[in-house]
Amino acid sequence: MNYSGKYKGLTLIEVLITMAIITILAAVVYPAYVDVTGRSNRSEAQRELSRLAFLQEQFFADNRTYTADMTDLGAPADPYITESGNYSIDAIVGAGGTTFDLKATAKGNQAEVDADCTTLSIDEALVKTASSESCWEH
């Protein structure tokens, strides 16, 4: 066999080095992607809690009581499931209907991805609480 020219193609070593580089990059990028996705889903829950707190205040202005039934606030079901399906939001109304606490609980994969912030809540005084102090920060 007479090879009188440059070889065309990749050697096994070159392919293995390329695969190693891709694997290392994936190992670094994937956790960051999961973190960003979890925070993005959490912002949906924060937005919905704030919106529903506003609707609770409107309901109180009309009825002189808060409601524990999310459908009274225009939600399609009680408890309310966010559009992405990552959070379940329910209302807890105090005795006499003069206080409320809206609580968002992470569901499914969101509970695993964002394990530090599995619950978020807001009350009638707009006090925001969560399972971790940093959950309401952006």
From TrEMBL:
Pfam families: ComP_DUS, N_methyl. Keywords: Membrane, Methylation, Transmembrane, Transmembrane helix. GO terms for cellular component: type II protein secretion system complex. GO terms for biological process: protein secretion by the type II secretion system; type IV pilus assembly. SUPFAM superfamilies: Pili subunits (SSF54523). InterPro entries: Bac_GSPG_pilin, N_methyl_site, PilE-like, Pilin-like. The keyword Membrane applies. PROSITE patterns: PROKAR_NTER_METHYL. The keyword Protein biosynthesis does not apply. The chain crosses the membrane at residues 12-33. It comes from the Bacteria. This is Prepilin-type N-terminal cleavage/methylation domain-containing protein. It comes from Thalassomonas actiniarum.
